[in-house]
Amino acid sequence: MSATRFTYLGPEGTFTEAALRTLPEAATRELVPMVSVPAALDAVRNGEAAAALVPIENSVEGGVTATLDELASGEPLMIYREVLLPIAFALLVRPGTALSDVKTVTGHPVAQPQVRNWLRANLPDAVWESAASNADGARLVQEGRFDAAFAGEFAANTYGLVPLVTEIHDAENAETRFVLVGRPARPAAPTGADKTSVVLWLGDDHPGALLELLQEFAVRGVNLMLIQSRPTGQGIGNYCFAVDAEGHISDRRVGEALMGLKRTCPQVRFLGSYPRAGVAQSDVRAPRAGTSDGDFTAASDWLGRCMDGRA
Known about the structure:
Elements: E1 5-9, H1 15-20, E2 30-34, H2 37-45, E3 51-58, E4 62-63, H3 65-72, E5 78-86, E6 89-93, E7 104-107, H4 112-122, E8 127-130, H5 134-142, E9 148-151, E10 162-168, E11 175-182, E12 194-201, H6 209-218, E13 224-231, E14 239-246, H7 252-264, E15 267-275, H8 293-307
Parallel strand pairs: 1-2, 1-3, 7-8, 7-9
Antiparallel strand pairs: 3-4, 3-11, 5-11, 6-9, 6-10, 12-14, 12-15, 13-14
C-alpha cells in the first residue's frame, strides 16, 4: 500500500481537492486526482493509496449517491475524518468572453440545483450539460466545448480561465461534507464530539420494518443525524439505509444500538466512528437521562446483583 498517496475526486481544481488541502496531513502526501468517486475509492481498496477524499453530502442536494453506493458495496472501507467546505461558484469563461456570449454552460450535476435560480435570472436561454466534475467542466471550457463552467474560483488559473461572475449560490451558507476513507482498522479514540456511520439492510419488507431499526437507536437515546435510503440493485422495493448517528462506537448507547441492529438485520456495515467537523465537545448535548455510559454500567451492575441474589 502506498502510505504517502491520497486520491480524490478530480481533476485538479475541484472542491474536493480544496477540501483535501485543508487537512494537515495532506501537506505531506502525494495528492492524486481520479476521474470518479469509484476510481478514487478503488485505489484505496487495491492498495494504490492510503486514503481517498470524496464528497458524501451537500446541504442543498442531500447525499452524494455515488459515494453512498460505493461505501455500501464492494470490499469494506472505513471513514476516518470529515471535512465541511462552504460552497460558492464562479462562472468561469475564456478570456474576452462576455455574459451575452454564454450560450452553453456545464458543471457537476450536484452544482446545477445550487445555481438554478441564478441561471434562470441571468442566462435563461443557456443550455446546460453536465460534466464529470466542476473542474472537468472548466477543462471543457478551456478546450472550447462550452462557453462557461460553474466551478470554484480557485480553478480559474489551473485552466487558463477568468471568473466572469463570483459568489454564485442560490442558498446562503451552502456547504458540502467530504469524508476521508481508508481501509478498515481500529477507530480513533473518542473525542466527545463524534459521529458513527453505518449501512443497514432490512431483513424483510413488512409494516414497521424501518421503525424497528430506528427504535434500536431511539430506546438508547442515540440521535440520528442522517438517514437515506438507497436501492440495493436487487429489484424495485429493495433498499438499504445509510445512517449517521451521534456518538462513538465505544459509547455504550451506540455500541448496544449496533449490537441490537446486528441481531435483527441480515447485514450491517460499520463505516466508522470519527470526529464531527466543526463541533467541539462543549457543543455536544449531554446524553438523555438513563443513556450515559454510567447509566448503562449501573444497570449492568444491578442485573449482576439480581443474578447473585443480592438485589
